[in-house]
């Protein structure tokens, strides 16, 4: 569940709706990200978090990105990220427009966020927003194909697209 403007998972028609489950492709991408990030971040100050960790947005909204890199202090017993630095969302047909517009705007308003990565579930494509030195968010970098990579300099990580999409059946 997500808390948006005081409503659980508020949709355009203003009816609350539960979000559960993911396609095999969506899930495999998330599993791959968690495994890759764990290996890259081991021993450092940042940790990969699953969609079970909340991230607080402006106006008190709560979001659960598919994967988060949290570089803040580890607080046992807490249910929220302390310093979200990177958010990953695997796009879904039912929420694609919402994710690319409203959710992306909310994510970019998080003061500690440095990168936002949106991934296509059925083709090896990523959109990567990176906050610049002045705090602005230039147009996203588009990475297409398995020979590309998702570069996240704020956390010193580069993820090969072939590994992000390993074991995912891609469409044309």
Structure, explained:
The chain has 172 residues and is α+β, with helices and mostly antiparallel strands. The protein contains 3 helices and 12 strands; from the N terminus they run ββαβββββαβββββα. It has a 6-stranded mixed beta sheet with strand order 3-6-7-8-9-10, sandwiched between helices. A two-stranded antiparallel ribbon has the order 1-2. The longest helix is centred in the N-terminal third of the chain and has 18 residues, at 24-41. It is globular, with a radius of gyration of 15 Å. The relative contact order is 0.16. Mean pLDDT is 89; it is low at 10-18.
Q: What fraction strand?
A: 25-35%
Number of helices: 3
From N to C, what is the helix and strand string?
Answer: EEHEEEEEHEEEEEH
Largest sheet: 6 strands, mixed
* Helicity, as a percent range: 10-25%
Instruction: Give the number of DSSP strands.
Output: 12
Class per helix and strand makeup: alpha+beta
Global outline: globular
Mean pLDDT: 89
